[in-house]
Every structure is written in C-alpha cells, then in structure tokens.
User: What shape does this take?
Amino acid sequence: MARQSKQIAASKLPRARRGAAGSPDDAPASRAERAAERRAAIVEAALDEFIARGFTATRLDDVARRAGVAKGTIYLHFKDKETLFEELVRTAIVPLIGGLTTLPPPTGSVREALEAFADNFIQEVATTRRGDIIRLIVAEGPRFPAIADFYYREVVSRGLAAMRVLIELGIERGEVRAAALADFPQIVVAPAIIAVIWKSLFDRHAPLDTHALLRVHLDLIFGERSAA
Amino acid sequence: MARQSKQIAASKLPRARRGAAGSPDDAPASRAERAAERRAAIVEAALDEFIARGFTATRLDDVARRAGVAKGTIYLHFKDKETLFEELVRTAIVPLIGGLTTLPPPTGSVREALEAFADNFIQEVATTRRGDIIRLIVAEGPRFPAIADFYYREVVSRGLAAMRVLIELGIERGEVRAAALADFPQIVVAPAIIAVIWKSLFDRHAPLDTHALLRVHLDLIFGERSAA
Amino acid sequence: MARQSKQIAASKLPRARRGAAGSPDDAPASRAERAAERRAAIVEAALDEFIARGFTATRLDDVARRAGVAKGTIYLHFKDKETLFEELVRTAIVPLIGGLTTLPPPTGSVREALEAFADNFIQEVATTRRGDIIRLIVAEGPRFPAIADFYYREVVSRGLAAMRVLIELGIERGEVRAAALADFPQIVVAPAIIAVIWKSLFDRHAPLDTHALLRVHLDLIFGERSAA
Amino acid sequence: MARQSKQIAASKLPRARRGAAGSPDDAPASRAERAAERRAAIVEAALDEFIARGFTATRLDDVARRAGVAKGTIYLHFKDKETLFEELVRTAIVPLIGGLTTLPPPTGSVREALEAFADNFIQEVATTRRGDIIRLIVAEGPRFPAIADFYYREVVSRGLAAMRVLIELGIERGEVRAAALADFPQIVVAPAIIAVIWKSLFDRHAPLDTHALLRVHLDLIFGERSAA
DNA sequence: TATGAATGAGTGTTCATTCAT
DNA sequence: TATGAATGAACACTCATTCAT
Assistant: This one.
C-alpha cells in the first residue's frame, strides 16, 4: 500500500568528485563507469526478478526498485522489457560457455575430467543462480525462440560437442564401454540438468544429494571404482 | 493474435438419451452433457494457451475464443484464472499416475519392463501435449507451489518409488550391476525428461531420436544386448 | 465459491394439483395466483436488496436467490432492473399515502391527531422497512427523477397539504400559536424524517428514543402539557 | 455521457518559486505543486461524480475525464475507488467541523447565535456542494460504516453537543422555554437537514425558501419576535 | 410459465513506456 | 544522464439481459 522505501544503492556513487579533477585512475568512477555500474545493477536485479517470476509476471517497477534506480533509467540502457530479458539471459549464459569448451585433459583420466566437471557444475551452476537460468530458459524458451537459439548455439551444441569428444576419448582409452554413448552425450548431462530442476521444484519435499547422484551416474558410465 | 478458428467442441456424443418422445436418439444432448462439453472445450483450449504462453501471458479472451465460448462462460466453470490453471494441470497430470504405479512385471525381465515403459513414454508423453505439461510445470512450479506439490506427490514420488522397486528387482536378479542406482532412480528417468525438454526447445535445431536415446541409456544400465 | 443452495420457497407451490381439477376456490392457487405470489416474492426480495445496497450495487442474482426464483423469472415480471426498481418503490410508497390523506379529525384536538400520527409513524414507518425506503429515495432520487417526482406528487405534496390543513385547524382553534407554521409544514415533519435517517446511520452509536423526540417536538409546537 | 470539457486544472498558482534564473516568477509550478493540483482536480471531479451518481455507479473513467487526467493517474494518488471515496468524503467533512465547535456566543443572545448559525449554514452548506455531501452520506452510509462512523464522531456528535450547550444557555437565560429541547438537539437541526434534502430532491417541484423556513423554526423555539 | 446457462459489454486495476524537468 | 509522474492500452472479472429447453 505505502510506497516502499527506495534502496540506497545509488547514493554511494561519488558526488563531490569535481573537486578532485585530474585523478582519473582511482576510486571515483567516471561517468562511463557509473553508467556501467547502473547497468550492472539493473541486470542483476532483473535477473533475480525474471528467475523468480518469469518474463511476463516480472514488473519493471520491481526491477528498478531492486536495482536502486528509477524506472525510466532502465530505458536508458535497454530498449524495452523484451530486449532487457534477451540481453540479460545472453549475458548470463556466456560464462557457461568457457567451462564447456575448455576441457580436453591430456594428462588425467576421462573419469577424472568428468568428476572435475561435475564438481565444478555443482559449485558454479547447481548451487548458484545459473541453475535457475537453465530453468528460466526451459520456461521461456518457446516464447523467446531467439534465446533458445542462442542457448542452443552457444551452450548446448558446444557443450555436447565437447562432451562427445571426451566420451570418444574415454572409449578410445577403454574407460568407457558403451560406445553408443558418443551418439547421445545428452545422457551424460541429463542427471545434472535434472538435479538443477529438482532443486527448484522438489528440494523442499525431498532434498537431493547432487554430488552423490552424479557420482553414481559416473559409476554407471565408467563402472564402479574401488575407492571414491 | 489472429482470430483462431472455432473448436469442434459442439459435435460430441448425445449419450444415453432418455426415451423422450420425438428425439430420435441423436442431436440434442442434454443440458448437462453440453455443459460438460463446454467445460472440456475450455480445458482443452486453456491447456493449449497455457502451454504456448505460460500462465501470466495467457489471456482468457484467447482461451474463450479458442474454446468457442464467451468469456463469461469460463467463469461458470472456474472461479478464476488461477483455479482454471491449477485444475487444468491437475487434470492433465492424473492420467500419468496410472501408468506409473502399474508396472511390476511378474513375467518378463526388468529390462523388458523398462523398454515397454520407455516406448509407452514416447508414445503417450514425449510425442503428445503431456510432454509440454511437464515443461509447463517446470516453468510455473515455483509460482504455483500447490502444483509442484501435487505433481511431486502424485507423479514424481510414486513414479520414483515404482522405479526403485523395479531397479531393486533388477539388482536382485542380476540384471542391473550398479547397486547404488536404487538410491537414485532419477538417473533412470533423467534422459526421458531431457528428451521432452529437448523436443520443445531444440528439436528444430537438432531433432532427437528419443527411441534410440532411451535404448542407449538402457544399454548403459543393463549392459549392451546382443540383438536390439 | 461453491454455489449456494437454492431456497426452497418455490417448492411449496401445489404440484400434483391436476388430480383435483374443478375445485377452483380453495387453497391451491391458480396459475395467476402463483404468478402473483412469485411477483410478490421478487418485489419483497428486491426491496431488501435495494435498501441494503442501493440500486446500482444490487445484483439481480441476489434478488432471484433471495426470492427463491430463477434469474430469468424476474424478467417475466419486470422489463429490466430499472423498471423493477421504479415499480418497487412506487409499490412501497403507495401505502404511505392512505395514512396521510385520511386525517382531518373533527372530534379530538389537533394535538391528539398529531400524536396519533406520530405514534402511527413510529409503528408503521420508523420501525419498519418503510423507513428505509425513505432513505432509499433520498439516496437514489437524483438518479431516478421519475421516482422523486412520484414520491413528491403522491406522498410529499399530499402529506404536507394535509399537514397544513391540520396546522391551520390548530391555529384556528388556538392550539397552535405560531401562525407561520402553516407556511412550512416541513418543520412539523422534519424530526420524524431525521429520526428515520438517524436509525439507519447512527443508532448503533447513540440509540434514539423516537417517541420521546416526537413528543418534545409536539410540545414545542403546542406548548408543554401538564401530563403526557 | 457526452465527452465533458477538460478542466482548467493546469492554470493555478506557481507559488514561491525559488529564484531560479530565467523563471520570471510565473508559469512553471514545481513538480510537487502540479501533483497537488492534479490531486485536487481528481478530488474535485470525483466529488461531483459521486454526488451525481453515488459510489457504485460512478465510473473512474468519468472522474479521470472530468479531472483532465488519465485513468491511471488516479491510482498514483489513491489506492482504489473505495479509498478515493472515503478520503474524499472525509476531506469534505472536515471543514464542517470548525464551524460547529466554534459557537459559544459570550455577547449576543442565543437566538442571535442560532440565526447566525442558520445564515452561515445556508451560505456554506445548503447552497453549496457540501449539502450534497450530506445527502451522499445518507445514501452511502450503510455501505460505508467507516464513513458513517467518522461523520458521527466528527460532525454529528460534536455539532449536537455544541447545540445542546447553546440550548442550555438559552434555557438558563430564559430565551428558550422548552427545557426538554436540551435532550433532543436534533429537533433544532432537523429543518436545516430537511432543507438540504429538499433542495436536491424536490426544489424543482416546489422551491423552498430555506431562510424563511429556518426563521419560522427559530420563532417556534424562541417565540415570535417583534421585528425580523 | 420457469429455468439457468450463456453472453458480451462494461469497469476497476495494472504496468510497460514516455517525457518534461 | 536520471528521474518518476503521467499515460492509456490491456486484461481479469462482473452482471444485466437473453433464449433454448
């Protein structure tokens, strides 16, 4: 009912800076830097809101409040709600790419590589907002084909390709018995995706031990090990 | 957006006409029957719209148009949009339940049972609107905890329990080597879920052979077979 | 949420009457009588609803339910909501007229006549729904000029005319000193109207002794009496 | 019904402009001032509409049009229609309070005080929209108990209390003969209220000379005067 | 005649987007 | 550049009225 108090986020920006003119490299933050900060705050806030409510149900009013900016400010950085959403998801997806393409481990075993990947996934995706982004894409993908496309191109196809390479290496080295697995790298990834979905839908009913789940799955692929 | 063509709703069964003089056992359909037909048409139309747009973005105007009824008619059958959505999803989920609890295969092997289950899943879920409902639950679950709860209780927990029984039987009989699989029946189901999601998001980029995918996955669990 | 159970009012009507054909004068109620009953039930129910909620806020659904008839039935008796309202108020006003025009009491004193009138007003108006009708007219009059007109013509002008006659008689007989009162018979009636309004607005804050109020007012007009 | 002409709202006082260079002390009006103007325009328009149509029948569309603002603007100032109505009536009632509690006439006679009060009532209430507000309260009171409460507490009870004090003073001084009048100050006020109601319902049939009416009433209370 | 399901125009309210300051 | 008041199209929901039974 009553207007919620604004966030103070926007007030820690250097105001009385003009006096210290000439020192361009320390704390202050130039105009461009301030703009970047604001933009980042909007992105951050919007991501939270979109994850929590989905695209249509998210109100830019809430995004602005959470970001500590005025509603109009959003439009200085993004053309409209749709653009904000698309750029946002794109931005959030990008960091996922690095981890996927940087894999072929010349030294260790393929199993070790996949274990490392699983651990990394748990730490960087399953337990962070990135996991929610996956769910967000599943939810909004059909209404934002551009995003589904982008996600497929940048993450899915690359990730699966890298996974296939790894599987083939495993087959070659005798680590992996099921040769056909190279045709369906999705099988290797599936439990990880399921774990992410489970977390946001059912974890309150039955908490899932993602780590154990992925270990059992790797055992299935590589055969059981003596010591974990 | 464009005016959708009307439904065929009004052509159904005039079942069990009491022998009222003059009605030659066809056309009319009692008032109750027509009400049921209308309700069914609304459910049908709403399901399509909700799947296509999600809860918030769906307009009851569109649902009404697609169902071939007036907007007000929806409110003769459902209290409000939220109730329509929840009843809808519940209704759509129920038929999934039967298939899950009716598995125990006294005769054949566990592998055969799972193959039958997979084939059934492909035919009844993956290639029908039921698959989209799963995606819808993933999308709207966080905003409709009641639905996530219902889905967990009626489908997920029962399905996993049944799956666990099957796995344990497989372990007992020596068909399944990975004993720990009984702790994570999710692993057995994961590729099927992933296939459903894939269909609605990426199939246009890279069509997925769900049948083959599930066969490879079963091979992983049961070991490769001599003849497919 | 759930449909309220219907009233059973409509079921006490004679159904198996056909057998007793020919006895047209006893209990049964002819078709016309049944229609009149229904109409009366609608009028009754509508009056309650209109008094409680005003014209616009009253729902014909509620009227029908309260009257124990189907919504459509209202339209068999009244053209539309407005007509129902106007006929209703007219009907409710009519009985007020009789009491007003039937006054000049040749025998008793004018004071006695007014006391009788006051007592009657309390019994027949102030403590019954008729009082609420006065408030209803005050409330809806500006939006239903026809009703205000009718009320003025049938009740107000006649009532004031009769009151004037009475006052003049009182003046003539020396009972009433203030001769100018004949020019403003409203003054004589004012406290009675105020009492009615008070009852519905403020009685819960401060109950009003209408009888005493009117007695004091008569004392003001006729001078104090030794014994009441 | 027909499009109403816009308001003159946007032409008010640009009061207390800080000496901002270039602004020659007129036009602009600060943002806060314009907001206040708009709010005032809404209140003004809403009051007119509510008086003319009652709460339920008033359309916020019409209020907006009459106020010369967009419909959404109303919601920047008021939570909803009900709040608008309640705040409105409260606001309109408040100025009535001052006049009521500020009466005790140390010098003149009680009759003079009441004559002044009557004249003031005619000028400030009976011939202005404030009179209509009284009718509005009578009309909507039962549906807005909060308003009836407020009106009773702030206006009725205070007004009657002040009136009682005045009557008692009159009795004490021998101006008023009817001692019991102190128990029913409503009698003193009744004709004034009736006059207000008459104005909006019947004045077109029979114009009422409120001034004369109230004078005759005072004569009734104080006894006839030699010269008016 | 009575019913009540069906209709669809109408209204309160929300929220993405604009724009004067 | 940032603001947030203002806009008005859009949408959920209501209810007077109709009409097939």
Remarks:
- Confidence is low (pLDDT under 50) at residues 1-27 of chain B.
- Chains B and D do not touch (no CB pair under 8 Å).
- The CA atoms of residues 41 and 108 of chain B lie 41 Å apart.
